[in-house]
Specification:
Helix 1 (16-23) packs across helix 6 (182-196), helix 3 crosses helix 5 and helix 3 packs across helix 8 (228-254). With 255 residues, the protein is α/β, with parallel strands linked by helices. Helices cover 38% and strands 24% of the residues. The relative contact order is 0.20.
Length: 255
């Protein structure tokens, strides 16, 4: 009988190499029950013990009691990421209200750090709205490709973080339950490696019309290797996140 793992993966184009790798697991003695979901839902699936392995937004890691980091691959960028951005009808300094994206707490927190530290603005942040027809929004994922033409200004958070810190940025990492067998983790890691090794097979046939743009995005905007610079960037983001949360708690106590 095959061993079975439940795995949650983000349903964006930037996970295509991972999905291709998982599709090559047929010859291994490991059955995968795959769930595709937005980043925030992947976090909830892991928290509720619905999956054993998940691609988790880094902003959700502080909510987890126990996990093991699979520290070979991630979803990151080293400059412009293209799919995490403020889209606005007014220049950044004129934004008074910024509507956050309901699909990623990480990007919502990152944009607040950059507004405070880099742009020196303090807009009002709306509740997570699914209405993207607003003057200024934070948008993440594949929908950015469709929405950006409707706005006059686009501020890429990956490029802004790089300009602010000189470092890459990590949006999501793979984690496992501590109980998952190390042999299974290695099988998954090897599958990801095989997937990464065949970029000519990343794009499924039904996306052929977008192949050139997607390959440019996956090879020029997304970084998949979790190296020392990514770890440094993650540590810096966590420290800035702690300062942001402390400032918010202190503000609410005084008001």
């Amino acid at each position: 009988m095959k061993s079975k793992l439940r795995l949650a993966c983000v349903e964006y184009y930037n996970t295509l190499p991972f999905l291709h790798g998982l599709s090559l697991l047929e010859s291994n003695q490991l059955e995968i029950e795959l769930v595709l979901a937005p980043p925030a839902e992947c976090s909830q699936l892991y928290l509720s013990d619905a999956v054993d392995i998940a691609l988790i937004p880094v902003g959700a890691l502080d909510k987890l009691d126990a996990y093991r980091l699979m520290d070979t691959y991630c979803i990151g960028c080293n400059g412009a990421v293209d799919t995490v951005a403020i889209l606005s009808q007014v220049p950044i300094q004129a934004i008074t209200t910024l509507h956050l994206d309901p699909q990623s707490n990480t990007s919502n927190r990152l944009v607040q750090i950059l507004c405070r530290e880099y742009w020196n603005i303090n807009p009002k942040y709306s509740n997570h709205s699914k209405n993207y027809d607003q003057e200024s929004i934070l948008a993440i994922g594949d929908k950015v490709f469709d929405l950006e033409s409707k706005y006059q200004y686009k501020y890429d958070l990956g490029a802004t973080w790089k300009a602010h810190t000189g470092l890459p940025f990590v949006f999501a990492v793979w984690i496992t339950k501590p109980s998952v067998n190390q042999e299974f983790i290695e099988i998954i890691d090897q599958a990801f490696h095989r997937g990464m090794s065949h970029p000519d097979q990343w794009i499924p046939n039904h996306l052929n019309t977008e192949r050139d743009n997607l390959m440019k995005y996956l090879t020029e905007n997304i970084v998949f290797s979790f190296d020392d610079s990514m770890r440094e960037a993650l540590n810096l983001f966590n420290s800035k996140l702690e300062a942001l949360e402390y400032g918010y708690r202190n503000y609410t106590k005084q008001n």
